[in-house]
Structures are given as structure tokens and as C-alpha cells.
Design a protein that fits this description.
By secondary structure, the protein is α/β, with parallel strands linked by helices. It has seven helices and seven strands.
């Protein structure tokens, strides 16, 4: 099965669905796309380190990675739609994972909306399922004030992959912070434990199924 993760920034794959990526990569052809290159406004110099960390993380998680050369927070909706449509048409994935539609980060929101358009369930579309994923310090920090709020309805047991997710995050030396920051490795582990308690496993990641053809 071919599975594609279409995300905004190098690190979103590890902070968000990293455990699920590692799990799915065991038996599927998994591709990760970062539509932005990690050059943050007023801190563009971190891009090179983030790009290297992204490719190292993809290798660690067992997935194929691709970064588009668009600086953070400069992504436009037309650019996102056109690039995502090319990805979908070229790879013809069975399943697509992308950002939540109401994240704080504008790049996330643009990509989520663009994915809904590019993955609309036409009879000829290869995409059978579309999921939203959560990313700390973006999905949760909207405090449900940006609607529609993230409503998880699918949980993936990542108990066997929590250590590899933690290892992937250690690669992002410019993007991880000390606890209790939401973008700390400890906070990620706490979130995974919480999601696990919701479905009776040690560690889990939560997703919102947007639609399924099955």
C-alpha cells in the first residue's frame, strides 16, 4: 500500500505522526513531503539544519522524504494546491495524512485545505482515505477557538515505536526545547501516553478520519 504524509515543515513528521510513520513503514511504501524548507522568518539560517534533520528522521522512520524549497509562512493556497495535486497524480497514494484544518500555524491550515481539494474523492482518485494529524504547539494551541476543532476518531498504537519517535526528535536540535515546553520530547511522550489511555494502550497517536471509500 502507498501512503503519503503531506506536511508543512521539517519536524512536523516527527512531532506529529512519527510513531505511525515508523509503524506503517514496516509493511508499506511511505512518503513524507514537507512543503516548506524550515527557513523561519527572522531565523532563516536554521533551514539547513532542519533539512538535514528531516532527511535523517525520514531514514530513521523508514520513509522516503522530499522537501520543497518554500520558506516558512510564505506558502500560498494556489501553490499548495498545485504542488499537492502533482504529488497525488504522480504517486497515486491509497492513503493521505495531512495537517488539521484548524491549527494555529497558517502553513498547516493552507495545506490541510489544499489536501481536501487535491484528494477529493472522485471516482478516478486513488485516495481511499484522508486523515488529519495533530502537531503539538499548533493543533492544541488553537484552544478550539479556530473551528472546526480537531476531533480524533482514529488511534494508532505506537507502543513499540515510541523510542524511535523520541530518537527522531533528538535529531531536531533547533526545534526541541526543555520541558514543560510543548515542543519538548517529554511533552510528546506525555501526549502519547494520554492518547494511549484513551484506547487502552501504553502509547498512541490520534488522527481524525476525514473520509473513507472503504
Amino acid at each position: 500500500m502507498k501512503i503519503v504524509f503531506i506536511l508543512a515543515h521539517p519536524d512536523d513528521e516527527s512531532f506529529g505522526p512519527g510513531g505511525t510513520i515508523a509503524k506503517l513503514s514496516k509493511e508499506n511504501d511511505v512518503h513524507i513531503f514537507s512543503l516548506c524548507n524550515g527557513a523561519r522568518p527572522n531565523n532563516e539560517q536554521v533551514s539547513a539544519q532542519r533539512i538535514k534533520s528531516f532527511y535523517d528522521a525520514c531514514n530513521l522512520l523508514g520513509a522516503k522524504g522530499t522537501i520543497h524549497n518554500v520558506p516558512d509562512l510564505t506558502l500560498t493556497y494556489p501553490t499548495a494546491v498545485s504542488r499537492i495535486e502533482v504529488i497525488i497524480n504522480q504517486l497515486t497514494p491509497d492513503i493521505v495524512y495531512t495537517h488539521n484544518l484548524s491549527d494555529v500555524n497558517m502553513d498547516h491550515r493552507i495545506i490541510a485545505e489544499a489536501c481536501i481539494v487535491a484528494c477529493r474523492p472522485k471516482p478516478t482518485s486513488s485516495v481511499k482515505k484522508l486523515y488529519f494529524t495533530e502537531v503539538p504547539a499548533s493543533t492544541d494551541w488553537s484552544f478550539s477557538k479556530i473551528q472546526p476543532a480537531f476531533e480524533p476518531n482514529t488511534y494508532i498504537d505506537i507502543s513499540e515505536y515510541i523510542e524511535i519517535k523520541k530518537e527522531a526528535l533528538t535529531l531536531y536540535v533547533t526545534e526541541t526545547y526543555s520541558y514543560p515546553d510543548a515542543r519538548s520530547i517529554e511533552a510528546m511522550e506525555i501526549r502519547a501516553k494520554f492518547r494511549g489511555t484513551q484506547v487502552g494502550v501504553n502509547f498512541a497517536e490520534a488522527f481524525q478520519l476525514v473520509y473513507s471509500k472503504d
